[in-house]
Write a structure and sequence with these properties.
heterodimer; A: about 250 residues; Rossmann fold; 2 domains; six-stranded mixed beta sheet; 9 helices; B: about 400 residues; ABC transporter involved in vitamin B12 uptake, BtuC; two-stranded antiparallel sheet; disordered C terminus
Chain lengths: ~250, ~400
């Protein structure tokens, strides 16, 4: 029984069957990649996991509890953090403030009035935030206005914001999309490091096979809304069905 | 000091000094001189400066921090005024219970309107608040006449119960509002040469409350709650996926700013114990938006400056008439004098809105950060050092 169990999930947009009978099981403390050609339903599946979309039928269980019908912030409080395809950070705030917000969310829940104590007086949370920034080599940027940073830095900040909450499951939606090779390699190293250091389960959606094969322990291939194969990276590489899905029958 | 960092503490001290010496600072011209009409140091106007300052400070907590633009905040001001006047009618002429009730009633009212309006954001939110405020105005003007006094407004009467105070004074007049014996209308004059300075109890009472609300707003800006509100403005999607529910945060900000408006309304009624429906009209809601943008959205001191500028123009420019213009330009040849007066005339008197419009346009185009940004630019011209620190957290607009 995995930490994340997707059972017979169907999602239809009008006449389009975006997801058809998707079954997926992500085992604890592994890195599970979901790959597939454009339009395979990867993002729809991800959105069903985080509460943005509600599947028409089926069940999504996380850590023994159903996530269906819960809002994104409730699902986050259960222990799922999500990194977006384009980095979503608080652009008007400084890097440090960006880091403090998830710390507050983790400690005080989805809403708290906190009184009128100054943010600067929260020494414990600041330490947490600084340690995490240190881990992703961004401590020197803590007072920067986050919107003015490079895309790679924004991505690292977003990941740090997710990790500082110690999530049980980290969902990555094409974390290296649009990145230069060097940045991609940095991200891979960072993710490997994170996996070694923490007890964390990672589910990753990715186009870049270099990233997938460097990180994933299990791979699920989606095509036209249904899982084709689920196997180890070695077995996926030469799998005829996968080739067919990506390149068409003629190949 | 008071849990503020150095920068905020010095800002608070400067504002305190300005407010305390306002009767001097706003009366720079000697009595009887041609410039005396530009003096703003009389109690009535100074009271308006600080009361609208409170209104704008509260509005800025919602608009400046969360970015939710409410077009109905005058409704809370009006509700606060009505509540305060009812307290004067039923309880006593002490302003303290009146102001407390004004804040509570406005808060409850804001909770209801905010709960519904905050289901939408952006322009839809603005329209919802506008609709609620206009509904409140219409109700106050007609249906609720027994409570609000309708067209004539709510006024004190000799036969009001006032259970904790006398219904009438010894002379048989309606008593005036006071604070444990200090009458709001009392004032002393200080004559220094040609200058006359007026110190009014009402002004200083309102000023102390304004300083307290300003202090509270600084604490809110610097608190984790204030940071969450800025996060709401910056990226609601990320906030949601970070495990935080934006709705109660925005609702809390809405209620707090509604309570500030109620406080301003209660103070207004304390200075002059009557309340009318026109205080809830949509132009009154628009005015506080202008004040905030003019001064600097999301800055601490900006809304107060904006409120001061608009109230100054409303009271001073509107008092200039064509006779005064003629006396100013009397040195010009007759034909030219008439021409200059004709050209300027549309911008004065009742045309002060035109001047305000031009000032507003100039500020929005050249100083999107409001008067505060103008102040920073001037400071930058004088000291290179200051120019090297553009990241001034106190005054930087949140945009």
């Amino acid at each position: 029984m995995g930490i994340l169990e997707v059972k017979d999930v169907n999602k239809r947009f009008g006449g389009l069957q975006a997801l058809g009978n998707v079954n997926l099981s992500v085992a604890e403390n592994t890195c599970h990649a979901i790959i597939g050609p454009n339009g395979a339903g990867k993002s729809t599946l991800l959105n069903c996991l985080v509460g943005k979309l509600i599947p028409d039928t089926g069940a999504v269980m996380f850590d023994g509890q159903s996530v269906l019908g819960r809002t994104p912030f409730e699902i986050n409080q259960m222990g799922i953090s999500r990194v977006f395809q384009t980095p979503e950070i608080f652009g008007d705030l400084t890097v440090m403030e960006n880091m403090l917000i998830p710390c507050f969310a983790k400690r005080d829940g989805s809403f708290a009035l906190h009184g009128i104590r100054s943010v600067t007086s929260e020494a414990e949370l600041r330490d947490q935030a600084e340690q995490m920034l240190e881990e992703v080599n961004m401590l020197d940027k803590r007072n920067m206005h986050s919107a003015s940073m490079s895309r790679g830095d924004k991505r690292r900040l977003e990941m740090a914001m997710c990790l500082v909450q110690n999530p049980k499951l980290l969902l990555l939606d094409e974390p290296t999309a649009g990145m230069a090779r060097a940045d991609t390699n940095n991200t891979i190293d960072l993710l490997k490091e994170i996996k070694e250091k923490r007890n964390i389960t990672i589910a990753i959606i990715e186009h870049d096979m270099h990233v997938v094969f460097s990180l994933a322990e299990r791979i699920t291939v989606l095509a036209q809304g249904t899982p084709l194969v689920e196997d180890t990276p070695e077995n996926i590489k030469g799998h005829p069905k996968v080739k067919e899905a990506y390149l068409g029958e003629a190949a | 000091m008071f849990g503020l960092d150095k920068k905020d503490a010095s800002l608070l001290l400067i504002v305190t000094a300005l407010v305390a010496f306002a009767p001097f600072l706003l009366n720079p011209f000697p009595e009887g001189s041609a410039m005396a009409q530009f003096n703003a140091g009389y109690p009535d106007l100074m009271q308006r400066f600080v009361i609208f300052g409170i209104f704008a400070i509260g509005f800025n907590i919602l608009f400046g921090l969360t970015g939710y633009l409410s077009f109905g905040h005058a409704a809370f001001l009006g509700v606060g005024s009505y509540a305060a006047v009812w307290m004067f009618k039923l309880l006593s002429m002490n302003v303290l219970p009146a102001i407390i009730l004004a804040v509570i009633v406005a808060g409850i009212f804001a909770l209801i309107i905010g709960y519904v309006s905050l289901r939408r954001s952006g322009i839809y939110f603005s329209i919802l608040t506008l609709a609620f405020a206009q509904m409140s105005f219409a109700l106050a003007y007609s249906v609720l006449t027994p409570i609000t006094g309708g067209e004539t407004g709510l006024q004190l009467a000799l036969d009001d119960p006032r259970i904790f105070g006398s219904a009438t004074t010894a002379e048989g007049n309606i008593p005036v509002p006071g604070f444990f014996g200090l009458e709001m209308r009392d004032s002393t004059e200080l004559v220094l040469g040609n200058w006359v300075f007026t110190f009014s109890v009402g002004y200083y009472f309102a000023a102390i409350i304004m300083l307290l609300s300003f202090y509270l707003s600084i604490r809110i800006f610097r608190s984790p709650f204030g940071m969450m509100l800025r996060a709401v403005k910056s990226n609601q999607q990320r906030l949601n996926y970070t495990g935080l529910n934006p709705r109660p945060y925005t609702l809390a900000a809405f209620v707090i700013s509604g309570m500030y408006a109620g406080l301003a309304g209660g103070l207004m009624a304390s200075m002059d114990p009557l309340a009318g429906a026109e205080r809830m009209f949509w132009t009154a809601s628009g005015e506080v938006v202008l004040m905030t943008i003019l001064g600097g959205v999301g800055t601490l001191i900006g809304p107060v400056l904006g409120a001061g500028l608009i109230k100054y123009m409303e009271n001073i420019i509107s008092k200039i008439n064509s006779d005064i213009l003629h006396s100013w330009f009397a040195f010009l040849p007759d034909g030219l004098e008439d021409l200059v007066v004709t050209l300027i005339y549309p911008f004065i008197g009742k045309g002060w809105h035109l001047t305000l419009g031009i000032v507003f346009m100039l500020v929005v185009i050249f100083l999107p950060g409001g008067l505060v940004q103008g102040g920073q630019k001037i400071a930058g011209l004088f000291g290179r050092k200051k120019a090297q620190e553009p990241k001034n957290a106190t005054t930087e607009p949140a945009e």
